[in-house]
Amino acid sequence: MQTACTAPTLEDMDEGGDTKPVHIREVPSKVVDILQKRADAQGMSLTGYLRQHLIEVASKPTMEEWIESATNRTWGVDRETIVRTIRELRDEVDSE
């Protein structure tokens, strides 16, 4: 039986596989200053701090992704089998 697809974990994305550079233009100076202070407080470079946060954001599915994974899962038993089994069990109880 399969369960819903899960989003990749932080560890899955942080395994040192392929990487791509990302350039973000026109970030307000105050935002960069705040992020730099937060990175410094954790003993990280700004790049490392931002990379960690981007990985965390990507590891959490959006509501749409979560709903799609929940509705597209295979339960292993179809509806007809469940209904038939319930009816058979009820018939057994009724005949006793």
UniProtKB/TrEMBL annotation:
**According to the lineage, what is the superkingdom?**
Bacteria
One GO BP annotation of this record:
regulation of DNA-templated transcription
Q: What is this protein called?
A: Uncharacterized protein
Q: Where is this region: Disordered?
A: 1-21
